[in-house]
């Protein structure tokens, strides 16, 4: 078959592995296989299984609906999982020996976490329990046959909506357990303070460790969760930490003599390194075992002998699996962990460790969505799945090229990647798209991105970078934008443009720029500072920091960590850093795009800028993605395609080469 560019339809053919769970004896891996269904325009999840030698690869639980969250029982004889069908979610358990599944209970909305007790007799999870909120004022009595408008929504919490979830009902997460022998779930925590989905069983099975911010009205305060331990017999809750700063992800050692967890001392910086701590089982004598690493770590998991803790961290745009002993001696195990999403090329990935030290992980690359890989205790690796061999064989994809340049601001080394269009010939001149990540404290890397690949397939050289502020380069690099965002990240990005132009194959008249969220902030900042780009697409930006910090879904967070004071205390600073302050300079034709239901960067941000551009006579267009929250591309597959298609259509309309009747980028995706 002829090699061809990636097409829109390919987004419905590509698949990705997620949440690999290796059996305790290391003999099998259950994982979640994700695919995009063209009929329903939804991402589907199904649990599959594969032997450690690659044999017996099959869907484990055919049947109605979708399955996810596979969790092995401690003896490996059973697998607990969650099934969702017709908007009902059930907790089910499969017995491997006979292949029979049984339903334990129906799970309420907001369920998170699922963990076996060490003796395999119980399962625990967290779920949301509603509570009464403030009442509306009294109105006349109504009878059932009357048809009145909905009553007033009365709110007293600062934080009452959350992107991806919508308006938050009153109530808290609580912990539940169920006995495998039968019976109803038992609610362990039942108070206004609540629990949290981030929990683990104690080694003796008599308690659960959990992380939660149990302060009254915690939604109004700076985030500060603590670790707690609840005794299952008495219901007594003991708080184990108390420093200022979040403490999360409690993980007791297999013999119960130590407790590991994640957290940091909160210095009110834009970025903090999340460190891995180890202490006694009651949290006493905590010490960081990753203090020297200068990276944020995640997903800690003990080795069976309690001598090592495995974890993930991002380094120079790639997610690594590493392990540390209790003295902080760190060994790198595996590179190229990859998330299962097809949107933009953010870092990510997941793994698990068996009792005998074999690791299952999701590993991919810039040209391959993640497969399941197995690593032996000696470090040998075996790829267990090849989910996309058939599709990838047809598609022309060259690996992302890593580039570096010195920032024109201060000479700082900045990293980025280039995707070349199919048929790229450096002897010709090419149009270029600069695509900018959000966060801003996050990182891009050489992971598979259908979004950016579709841009390259349309004939553009696509450049994406990790300017200052990005994670995976350490505390100092990220905090170079502390209270200074947007700032000299602008220079780093323009340095990327000049670096690419210096290579001789970029047409300077055909430069385009786009970015979403934090990347939308920087795109708008760029066009306020330069008219070098032929067109821009500003996606879900912050345009006006004053309106944003008071109207986003995290009003308790942004003004505290991203500014030195509140907007009414220093309005000039808020205005100085707002892209709206520069809109009078803009000459670049600019597309504006936002999810209609975005609560992180509310649509009013996008619409303010759209109005200002319009009023100033700058060519503009507003694209609203109906019902979409902030994560446009990873919510419905068609939204990813819409986002890219609208951006490319705009760039083509303002491409000087096209207007002059010259060569247009090939519209490979139309
Ligand atoms: C309490 S964390 C701060 C908000 C969060 N930052 C994550 O790094 C976030 O949502 N950032 C927005 C921009 C901000 C509201 C101005 C953002 O850029 N979102 C990213 C998504 C993202 C979130 C977390 C990690 C990576 C990416 C985007 O939509 O691309």
Automatic annotation (TrEMBL):
Protein keywords: Acetylation, Hydrolase, Protease, Serine protease, Signal
Low complexity composition-biased segments: 239-257
GO terms, biological process: proteolysis
InterPro entries: 6-blade_b-propeller_TolB-like (IPR011042), AB_hydrolase_fold (IPR029058), Pept_S9_AS (IPR002471), Peptidase_S9_cat (IPR001375), WD40 (IPR011659)
Sample GO molecular function, one term: serine-type endopeptidase activity
Entry-linked Gene3D superfamilies: alpha/beta hydrolase, TolB, C-terminal domain
Domain Peptidase S9 prolyl oligopeptidase catalytic: 446-654
Region of interest (Disordered), ranges: 235-257
General function of this protein: This enzyme catalyzes the hydrolysis of the N-terminal peptide bond of an N-acetylated peptide to generate an N-acetylated amino acid and a peptide with a free N-terminus. It preferentially cleaves off Ac-Ala, Ac-Met and Ac-Ser. Also, involved in the degradation of oxidized and glycated proteins.
Full protein name: Acyl-peptide hydrolase
Species of origin: Maricaulis virginensis
Lineage of source species: Bacteria, Pseudomonadati, Pseudomonadota, Alphaproteobacteria, Maricaulales
């Amino acid at each position: 078959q002829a090699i061809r560019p990636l097409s829109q339809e390919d987004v419905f053919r590509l698949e990705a592995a997620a949440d690999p769970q290796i059996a305790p004896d290391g003999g099998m891996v259950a994982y979640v296989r994700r695919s995009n269904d063209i009929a329903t325009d939804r991402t589907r999840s199904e649990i599959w299984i594969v032997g450690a030698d690659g044999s017996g690869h099959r869907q484990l639980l055919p049947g109605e609906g979708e399955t996810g969250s596979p969790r092995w029982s401690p003896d490996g004889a059973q697998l607990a999982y969650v099934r969702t069908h017709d908007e009902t979610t059930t907790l089910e358990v499969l017995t491997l020996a006979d292949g029979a599944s049984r339903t334990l209970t129906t799970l309420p909305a907001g369920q998170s976490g699922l963990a076996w007790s060490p003796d395999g007799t119980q399962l625990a999870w967290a779920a949301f329990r509603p509570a009464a909120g403030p009442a509306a004022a009294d109105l006349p009595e109504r009878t059932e046959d009357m048809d009145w408008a909905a009553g007033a929504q009365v709110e007293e919490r600062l934080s009452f909506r959350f992107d991806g979830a919508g308006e938050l009902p009153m109530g808290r997460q609580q912990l539940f357990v169920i006995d495998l022998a039968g019976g109803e779930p038992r609610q362990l925590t039942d108070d206004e303070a609540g629990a949290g989905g981030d929990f683990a069983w104690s080694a003796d099975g008599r308690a659960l460790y959990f992380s939660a911010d149990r302060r009254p009205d915690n939604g109004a305060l700076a985030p500060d969760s603590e670790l707690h331990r609840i005794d299952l017999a008495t219901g007594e809750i003991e708080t184990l930490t108390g420093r200022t700063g979040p403490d999360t992800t409690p993980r007791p050692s297999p013999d119960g003599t130590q407790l590991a967890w994640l957290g940091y001392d909160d210095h009110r910086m834009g970025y903090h390194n999340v460190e891995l701590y180890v202490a006694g089982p009651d949290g006493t004598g905590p010490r960081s075992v990753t203090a020297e690493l200068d990276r944020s770590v995640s997903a800690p998991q003990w080795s069976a002998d309690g001598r090592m803790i495995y974890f993930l961290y991002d380094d120079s745009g790639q997610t690594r699996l590493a392990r540390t002993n209790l003295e902080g001696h760190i060994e790198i195990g595996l590179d190229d962990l990859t998330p299962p999403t097809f949107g933009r090329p953010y870092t990510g990935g997941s793994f698990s460790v068996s009792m005998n030290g074999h690791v299952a992980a999701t590993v991919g690359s810039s040209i391959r969505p993640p497969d399941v890989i197995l690593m032996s205790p000696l470090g040998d690796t075996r790829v267990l799945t090849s989910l996309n061999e058939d599709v990838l064989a047809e598609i022309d994809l060259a690996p992302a090229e890593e580039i570096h340049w010195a920032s024109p601001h201060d000479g700082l080394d900045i990293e980025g990647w280039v995707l070349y269009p199919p048929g790229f010939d450096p002897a010709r001149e090419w149009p270029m798209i600069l695509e900018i990540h959000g966060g801003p404290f996050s990182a891009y890397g050489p992971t598979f991105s259908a979004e950016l690949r579709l841009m390259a397939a349309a004939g553009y050289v696509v450049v994406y970078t990790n300017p200052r502020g990005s994670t995976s380069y350490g505390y100092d690099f990220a905090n170079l934008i502390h209270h200074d965002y947007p700032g000299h990240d602008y220079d780093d990005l323009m340095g990327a443009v000049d670096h690419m132009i210096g290579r001789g194959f970029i047409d300077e008249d055909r430069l385009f720029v786009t970015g979403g969220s934090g990347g939308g902030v920087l795109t708008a900042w760029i066009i306020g500072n330069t008219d070098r780009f032929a067109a821009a697409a500003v996606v879900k930006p912050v345009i006006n920091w004053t309106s944003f910090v008071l109207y986003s879904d995290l009003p308790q967070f942004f003004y505290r960590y991203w500014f030195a004071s509140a907007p009414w205390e220093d309005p000039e600073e808020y205005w100085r850093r707002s892209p709206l302050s520069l809109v009078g300079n803009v000459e670049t034709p600019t597309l504006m795009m936002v999810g209609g239901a975005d609560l992180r960067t509310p649509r009013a941000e996008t619409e303010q800028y759209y109005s200002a551009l319009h009023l100033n006579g700058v060519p503009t267009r507003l694209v609203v993605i109906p019902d979409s929250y902030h994560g446009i591309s990873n919510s419905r597959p068609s939204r990813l395609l819409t986002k890219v298609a609208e951006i490319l259509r705009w760039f083509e309309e303002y491409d000087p080469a096209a207007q002059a009747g010259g060569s247009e980028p090939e519209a490979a995706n139309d």
